[in-house]
Write a structure and sequence with these properties.
By secondary structure, this protein is mainly α. The chain contains 15 helices and no strands. Helix 3 runs antiparallel to helix 4, helix 4 runs antiparallel to helix 8 and helix 10 packs antiparallel against helix 13. The radius of gyration is 27 Å and the shape is elongated. This is AI-2E family transporter. Belongs to the autoinducer-2 exporter (AI-2E) (TC 2.A.86) family.
């Protein structure tokens, strides 16, 4: 039997309009939470696509909207640049770092020999063999957790990269609908959306473009310095310095400091002093100068926001948290400022209404 078209509309609903509204919002939040949980292991792909969209969009807009180039060809070119310039080198560097840390964890004899010589030179009792092995295993495991897509299977890595590239392709090809959707469905006013967009641009500029440039310069300088002073494996330690340079407080001293200790344990006192002098005078000052210059040019982000964001982001998102973490902290601060401003405006409006109602 076919139901009449107005059958359901004629049935009385037990919920009030307000209750239906609350249940609708709860249903949306519940379904959204299920989607996020289901895609949790691939979340870095979508976050990475959003970050790359912000990075490449100025170039894409200049070519597509201003010079009228073909939209699809420019988007494919952006994807090729992403693969060749970002994904392949980052995969190679990360794999080198993880493999070498795992090798150190499995065969700590070289580190134990250095510690034994250092004990003889200083007369201090340092870590035991079991402690050294345990520390190395913990370090390798921690780095593997920071880089989950690179430490896991090749299939998972291909899936994550494929999702990221496909999402990036969709964001550029459907740019207008994507931006209109953000404006329509995010629960913020226009000025708040502008503040959030500016915060996103500043964070991406400061924590992607700026940090990568600083890390690259420091990694190269550290590798060259270690090569000049005869430290073994300067290329590997230069890669380690590149990753460590993202930390705004410790950074590359975690690399060239132990290198100086190693040279001292080998009887190379002059080389150890040279590493310390170059590290403190050149590398640290280059880091400070570059960060100040880039902070003014590419996004003024407070160092405390970066530090807290790094700790938060890396723990939750892995290596992509180097950008997402500071962004989350910045968004929290922006929304707190928006709440303060709107709450003050509401209080002022209420006070004005109350005074206007008085005789």
């Amino acid at each position: 039997m076919q139901l009449p078209p107005d059958f359901f509309s004629a049935i009385e609903n037990i919920y009030t309009p307000r209750q239906r509204h609350v249940l609708l919002v709860a249903s949306l939040l519940g379904l959204g939470a299920l989607i996020v949980v289901g895609l949790a292991q691939y979340l870095t792909a979508f976050v990475g696509a959003g970050i790359l969209f912000v990075i490449f969009r100025p170039v894409w807009v200049a070519l597509v909207h201003q010079r009228r180039w073909n939209r699809q060809l420019v988007t494919i070119g952006v994807l090729l640049v992403t693969v060749v310039v970002l994904i392949i080198p980052f995969y190679a560097l990360s794999t080198l770092l993880i493999d070498r840390l795992v090798a150190f964890a499995r065969h700590p004899e070289r580190i134990l020999d250095v510690l034994h010589k250092l004990e003889q030179a200083t007369g201090l009792q340092l870590l035991a063999k079991q402690n050294v092995r345990q520390l190395l295993e913990q370090a390798a495991g921690q780095v593997s957790r920071w880089l989950p897509t690179l430490a896991s299977s090749a299939l998972n890595f291909l899936v994550v990269v494929g999702l990221m590239l496909f999402t990036l392709y969709y964001l550029f090809m459907q740019e207008t609908y994507f931006l209109l959707g953000l404006r329509r469905y995010l629960p913020f006013r226009g000025d708040t959306m502008g503040e959030l967009g500016e915060s996103l641009k500043n964070n991406v500029n400061a924590n992607v473009l700026g940090q990568v440039l600083v890390a690259l310069v420091q990694g190269v300088l550290t590798g060259l310095m270690l090569w000049l002073f005869g430290v073994p494996d300067p290329l590997f330690w230069g890669v380690v310095a590149f990753f460590m340079a993202f930390l705004p407080v410790l950074g590359t001293p975690l690399v060239w400091g132990p290198a100086a200790v190693y040279q001292y344990s080998q009887g190379q006192t002059g080389s150890a002093l040279g590493i310390l002098l170059v590290g403190f005078i050149v590398i640290i000052n280059v880091d400070n100068v570059l960060r100040i210059v880039l902070a003014k040019r590419m996004g003024d982000i407070h160092p405390l926001v970066t530090l807290v964001g790094l700790v938060l982001g890396v723990e939750i998102f892995g290596i992509i948290g180097l950008v997402v973490g500071p962004l989350l902290v910045s968004y929290f601060l922006v929304l707190m400022e928006v709440f303060r401003r709107e709450n003050r405006a509401a209080l002022a409006a209420g006070k004005t209404k109350k005074e206007g109602g008085q005789p």
